Amino acid sequence: MKKEILLGNEAIVRGALDSRVSFVSGYPGCPSAEIGEELLKIAGEKNIYAEWAVNEKVALESAIGASFSGLRSIVNMKSFGINVCSDSLLPLAYTGTKGAMVIVVADDPSCWSSAQSEQDSRGYAYLSRIPFLEPSDPQECYDFTKLGFEISEKFKTPVILRTTTRVAHQKMPVEFSGEEYIPQKGEFVKNPNQFATMPPRVLEMKKELFEKLEKIEDFAESSRANVLSVNKKAKIGIIASGASYLHALEAIEMLGIEASVLKLGFFYPLPKKTIGKFIEKLDQVLVVEEVDPYIEKEISIIAKNANSKLKIFGRELFPVSGELDVEKICIALAKVSGKKFKPFDSKPVELPRRTARLCDGCPYWHVFPVLKRVAPESTIYGGDIGCNMIAGLPPHNMQDYLFSMGASLGISHGVSKSTNQKIISIMGDGTFFHAGIPGLINIVYNKSNPLIIVLDNRITAMTGHQPNPGMGKTGMGEDSGQIKIEEIAKACGVKHIKVLDQINVKEFEEAVKDFMGKGEVSLIVCRRICALLERRMQKGLNKEKVN
To answer: What is the mean pLDDT of residues 373-384?
Structure first.
């Protein structure tokens, strides 16, 4: 075995390599982006195929194609990405896989980088009926990735690996095998009864899925993903998952409490027999899990038969939002045990409030002031995901709604049809390719009139400078035809299109004034390279020129 200090995301990469992965796809998003980045760096050397797809739905579907061809695949995305790919995720549970597949979904409790909602993606386990693993540290990221491929291979099912920011970006020494990789080529063998979800066959598939889940639940009972530590004197138990498990261990030590601990790394299907046996002699149990009380609800059901007198404590003892930490768990555990605990002496320090701001030299600095100066004061500004989100913060303060990738266009259309107000919808180039095109087609087809401004900085910048279809380079650095935003807009039926460099302020002002007066949809592409990317290229860190 080899040992290196790795991030959780880097450990997942090692786990995928040691599981002989052949196909890698995903969409960049914090806190999962390093998975795709690292695999793309070594894909050529390892003879693996890797890509950044245009969105998470396409990424998953690409991996499904590889799986149906017998190859092992891994897909990576952040929490909102599983929403995007859910259309194909749910049927995948019915068809199952041919080649093993692991889907990595990274949640962000406390919304450090993904601010649209504090999503708990574990709910998709119940919706999709797909096995769900939850590591708590980088070593488990490696081990659980390998376990995910093992489960997928054994039961012909996809497996979801759920991380959080604290797990993905945590570092520790990780032991891994570093097995020699042998490249493979797949073959798709036709079998419509296996891969096509059409009635009446689809109902047979559902029955087969539930039969498969019973076998997986039996497997979960003895899985190494679950860790049991029994204190025979203890009448208090703690059931935890993810990074909260590590905090809980520290809290037990700090309070000096005798407690039995069950860590559930196999979230779905839960090992119900193991849980039942764990709680049967306890008086009280504290369930420690972040965001939503999924495990707590399951334990309440299990306890009716295993220990009806058990007192179950959980989310009611924790704040309704935000990550859990040692102090929060100590406070909850003190209430359960009756132990005294003095919260950490952290006096509030009054600091000036700091918000995110655009980088020095960012081309967006040339856009927002012009819009505020030229557009009528009552103009509504639709925001979208990416660096342009910062327009909602001081000193700009010009983002009136923000939801999800591409949503600015759909919402702008609805506002346009409902009011007589002027609307400017702003999105980046990566977002346009990800989810902007259907909204644009809908605007043209249903005849509304927002002004759409696409900020094309020649890169997907906010998540770490990943390429997109407008650059002419794939994620593996191969040459690819540049897909031009303006040509797509023209093909979608937009008549009023202008491509410019926004540093030419007068030209930009005139275009905004002209297009704001049109009675139909207009589109301006502001094309200027990201300042950080330009500096990197000047330093020779990016050898290939971005036009």
So the answer is: 91
Buried b (16+ CB within 10 A) or exposed e, 254-280: bbebebbbbbbbbbbbbbbebbeebbe
173 and 56 inside one domain = yes
Task: Identify the band that residue 476 occupies on the pLDDT scale cut at 50, 70 and 90.
Answer: confident
Mean pLDDT (whole number) for 405-421: 91
Residue linked to tokens 């983002």 = 399
Total number of domains constituting the chain? 3
- 454 close to 439: Cβ distance less than 8 angstroms: no
d(CA 40, CA 478): 11
The boundaries of the domain holding residue 257 are 226-337
pLDDT bin (cut points 50, 70, 90) of residue 541 is: low
Question: Last residue of some domain: 168, 195, 221?
Answer: 221
Q: Which residue has the tokens 């990780």?
A: 174
Considering the chain, what percentage of its residues have pLDDT values greater than 70?
98
What pLDDT is recorded for position 344? 80
Residues 145, 42 share a domain = yes
- Categorize the per-residue pLDDT at 527 as very low, low, confident or very high, splitting at 50, 70 and 90: very high
Reduced to 3 states, what is the DSSP secondary structure of residue 38?
Answer: helix
pTM value is 0.90
DSSP letter at 227 equals E
Q: What is the dihedral of CA 161, 163, 169, 170, to 10 degrees?
A: -90
* CB contact at 8 A, 105 and 171: no
| Count of beta carbons in the 10 Å neighbourhood of residue 201 | 14
Q: Where residue 144 sits, what CATH number does that domain have? A: 3.40.50.970
- Give the Å distances, CA to CA, from 78 to 34, 62, 102, 465: 11, 17, 14, 16
